[in-house]
Amino acid sequence: MGQDQTAELTWKDGATPVAVRFDDPYFSLQNGLEETRHVFLAGNDLPARLCEGFHVAELGFGTGLNMLALALVAEVPVRFTSFEAYPMAADDIARALDAFPEARAIADPFLDAWASGARQFQLGQLTVEVIEGDARQTLPAWDGEADAWFLDGFSPAKNPELWGEDLMLAVGAHTTPNGTCATYTAAGFVRRALSDAGFEITRIPGYGHKRHMTVGVKQ
């Protein structure tokens, strides 16, 4: 894998990874795990909806924190598919996860698999696949459908390609009837794109300093 396809990082306060390419941190500087629980788990009514065979998909794998938060609450077999253009190195992921002991405590099987180059692995009840490459190409070619989406690209202002109309249409096309999506952003163009993709969109209170976030149900 060429260097141009891997994540280039700086570290804020020695603990929070910041993507050089997008000048944006990978998770909340307040508490990334609690933000994940508020935005992606509660935003998709999880774990209440989890059942055997439930499929969660994600745009933006990053440190794997969202996956780990899901693994902490999944008590039945669940599939998890994530799309990531610029994968982080295993050592950098481990360093970032040290800020979240609860998530780090279950991360070793993931980190061992990741360090070996594996992008399909088992983590507790989760059967995980991380699809590398530009989601604008890889998602339309995907043959799966998700019951819930974690839309977790970098800030739309800094990473607009992961929030464009065509990609949101692909998200909608790969969502089961009454499937859901959740994202930390309330940007108007993102909400409009998701609405055009077939989601009934609602703006709800965000986490921490973020006043609003977005959730949707596929019609």
Can you walk through the features of this model?
This protein is of the alpha/beta class. It has a single domain (about 5-219), classed as Rossmann fold (3-Layer(aba) Sandwich), CATH 3.40.50.150. It has helices at about 30-40, 65-75, 90-95, 100-105, 110-115, 135-140, 165-175, 190-195, and strands spanning about 10, 15-20, 25, 55-60, 80-85, 120-125, 125-130, 145-150, 175-185, 200-205, 210-219. It has an 8-stranded mixed beta sheet, with helices on both faces. A 3-stranded antiparallel beta sheet has the order 1-2-3, with no helix packed on it. A hairpin with a 3-residue loop joins strand 1 and strand 2. Helix 3 packs antiparallel against helix 5 (about 110-115) and helix 6 runs parallel beside helix 7. It starts with 8 loop residues before the first strand and ends with a strand.
Q: What does the secondary structure layout of this molecule look like, with pairings?
A:
Blueprint: E1 9-12, E2 16-19, E3 24-25, H1 32-41, E4 54-59, H2 65-73, E5 78-84, H3 90-97, H4 101-104, H5 108-115, E6 120-123, E7 126-132, H6 135-141, E8 146-151, H7 165-173, E9 175-183, H8 188-196, E10 199-205, E11 212-218
Parallel strand pairs: 4-5, 4-8, 5-7, 8-9
Antiparallel strand pairs: 1-2, 2-3, 6-7, 9-11, 10-11
Helix pairs in contact: 1-2, 3-5, 6-7, 7-8
